[in-house]
Design brief:
heterodimer; A: alpha/beta; six-stranded mixed beta sheet; 14 strands; about 35% helix; about 30% strand; elongated; B: mainly alpha
């Protein structure tokens, strides 16, 4: 559906994209993940034909974004960063305007305006000026205008930024709902968003794609060294010394001691079985095991590893 | 074509919804009438003529037209809505034309609303002499053409910046320079003075509102509008070169 080959883009002397390549298939919900300034928005602006790339090639549904820009724009619904909207327009007038610009007219336009109002839950806001609406409602207007012409592809630049947790949940639910039929690309620097809504994440850093895969694939990539936290009821020097001697342990640090419970963090070499050995050591010494947890690599760690 | 109309309709709706368009109309009409009756020598000359109004129109337009035009692009850039608009399946020139024509409509409405002035003139004129409407028609034609040129300069200025104040000052400055190039005191001291003077709308405006409309003058104004609209389109496009 979307093919991007080695695109670069500079703003003056700032290099925003330094050769990004990726593919997105039909029906996928893909999250662009990356720190601020990594090139997420630039990539989206290029895909939506707002600005061209300096070099490289990008096609959407087989149409080149530069030479066949109108065809590409017809197939995409776009919500730019910070949801720019015409504040002085009524919601319904705005949706009619966008629908008209998207080639809808007459009964079809009327039906689609009604459809997107229903889909995004804007029934109570249609007669209001966009400038009067809360941030959450503006976001819905932004989504509604992106959906009005039933595009195959939806490009959403930070669709949940600045919203409260309830609004975030609503918007995510909506995106998942839309994503059943459409190809969706969204950008975010909020990691749980990717796990919550996306089939696949593309991690962008310094203008390049540094990793791509399902959230599970990405977290398993980060897993390697073992990482265990344990809270043990027992004398601190003994506990620390015994655990340090266990096979495969490279590093032990005591996090705190409270009411005779020692909380420790253990790091070990690649492999398995560190938590079992901790359990055996604790029980053979007749200490009490209050808590034992094997830490999983989170998307946060993978993200930090890849982007710093 | 349909897209030009859609943009036009949206912009006109914006004018009807915004206080600034009404303020513009009221202040323009009030100031125009005041200048006509106090400074234009209407009563003093004892002549039933609109000349005392049309002589001020360029100076009114010098400030009023860039004031209408300043928001046309700068506001879109500042609010980020330019990105929304230009990622719709629309050609750059369609947006430029739609926006320009909507502002031009506001300008024409402002001029049409000065109709009480010629009626007043008619009222004071000797009822037995037939009225020569030629200079009045010439004056309105000249005003619309001159306004259309300043508006094209103003919208282009607006497309150069995201700051409306800068757009306004730039629009005024360019217009002012083109006007004064037509003043003998200016063009006589400049190299290629005669050539530069021929680029100025001033002398053409003066001869037109006196009632002498020539095809060359009309072509001049339409070419100037076309030039600045072309520059406007190129400027909107320029986001793609940088």
């Amino acid at each position: 559906m979307i093919e991007v080959d080695n695109i670069t883009k500079s703003y003056g002397t700032t290099r925003a994209l330094t050769g990004a390549s990726f593919r997105i298939s039909k029906g996928e919900i893909v999250g662009f993940l990356g720190p601020n300034g990594a090139g997420k928005s630039t990539t989206m602006k290029i895909l939506t034909c707002y600005i061209p790339a300096d070099s490289g090639r990008a096609t959407v549904a087989g149409h080149d974004v530069f030479t066949d820009s109108l065809e590409v724009r017809r197939r995409i619904g776009y919500l730019p960063e910070n949801t720019p909207l015409y504040m002085e327009m009524l919601v319904v007038d705005f949706l009619r305007f966008v629908g008209g610009m998207r080639g809808l007219k007459g009964a079809r336009l009327k039906k689609r305006v009604g459809d997107v109002i229903g889909l995004t839950g804007l029934e109570g806001a249609v007669g209001k000026y966009i400038g009067e609406l809360s941030k959450g409602y503006r976001q819905r207007v932004g989504l509604a205008q992106a959906l009005i012409h039933e595009p195959d592809i939806l490009v959403l630049d930070e669709p949940t930024s600045g919203l409260d947790p309830n609004q975030i949940k609503d918007i995510r639910d909506l995106i998942r709902e839309i994503g059943r039929e459409k190809t969706v690309i969204l950008s975010t620097h909020i990691l749980p968003e990717v796990t919550a809504t996306c089939d696949r994440a593309i991690i962008i850093s310094d203008g390049r794609v540094v990793a791509s895969g399902t959230p599970q694939e990405l977290t398993s990539r980060g897993r390697g060294e073992q990482h265990v936290t344990a809270s043990v009821r027992g004398p601190r020097p003994d506990v620390e010394a015994k655990l340090r001697k266990l096979a495969g342990v490279q590093e032990v640090s005591v996090l705190d001691v409270q009411d005779g419970v020692v909380r420790l963090e253990l790091r070990g070499a690649k492999g398995d079985g560190l938590s079992e050995r901790v359990y055996e050591a604790v029980s053979s010494n007749q200490w009490g095991l209050v808590e034992l947890r094997r830490e999983r690599a989170t998307l946060e760690q993978v993200f930090t590893d890849l982007t710093t | 074509m349909a897209n030009i109309y859609r943009i036009f309709k949206k912009e006109v709706g914006g004018y009807m919804n915004s206080a600034s368009a009404y303020v513009f109309l009221i202040v323009f009409l009030a100031l125009g009438a005041t200048l006509f009756f106090t400074q234009g020598g209407f009563f003093l000359n004892r002549q039933a003529s609109m000349g005392g109004f049309f002589v001020f129109v360029p100076w009114l337009f010098l400030f009023f037209v860039p004031a209408i035009a300043m928001r046309i692009w700068a506001e879109e850039k500042k609010a980020g809505t330019e990105e929304l608009l230009m990622t719709m399946p629309v050609r750059d020139y369609e947006v430029v034309m739609g926006k320009y024509l909507a502002a031009l409509l506001l300008l024409v409405v402002a001029l049409l609303l000065t109709f009480p002035l010629p009626l007043t003139v008619r009222h004071f004129a000797d009822p037995k002499t037939p009225v020569d409407w030629g200079p009045v028609a010439g004056g309105y034609t000249a005003s619309i053409l001159f306004g259309a040129m300043v508006l094209a300069i103003g919208t282009w200025s607006s497309s150069l910046t995201r700051n409306q104040i800068i757009a306004f000052i730039l629009g005024c400055a360019i217009t002012f320079v083109t006007i004064v190039l037509g003043f003998p005191a200016v063009y006589e001291v400049l190299p290629f003075g005669q050539f530069l003077a021929s680029l100025s709308p001033w002398t053409r405006y003066v001869s037109m509102y006196s009632g002498a409309i020539s095809l060359a003058d009309v072509v001049y104004y339409l070419s100037a509008v076309a030039l600045f609209l072309y520059l406007n389109i190129r400027t909107v496009e320029s986001r793609k070169w940088m």
